[in-house]
Amino acid sequence: MQRLEQRSPNAILLLFLIAQTVDITMPVFALLALVAYSVSLALIVPGLLQ
C-alpha cells in the first residue's frame, strides 16, 4: 500500500500531462477503438452466420 502512495504524485502528474495533450491523443484513441471494433465484428459475424 505504501508503494501505491509513493506513486500517486507521479500518476497525478501523468494525468495532468495527458490532459495537456488530449487534443492530440483522443483522435488516436478513437481511431484505435474503431479499428478494434471493426476487427472484432469481422471475427464474430461470420461465426454467427454459420
Automatic annotation (TrEMBL):
Transmembrane segments annotated in the record for this chain: 12-45
Keyword check for Transmembrane: yes
Keywords assigned: Membrane, Transmembrane, Transmembrane helix
Keyword Transmembrane helix: yes
Name of the protein: CorE
Protein's organism: human gut metagenome
Lineage: unclassified sequences, metagenomes, organismal metagenomes
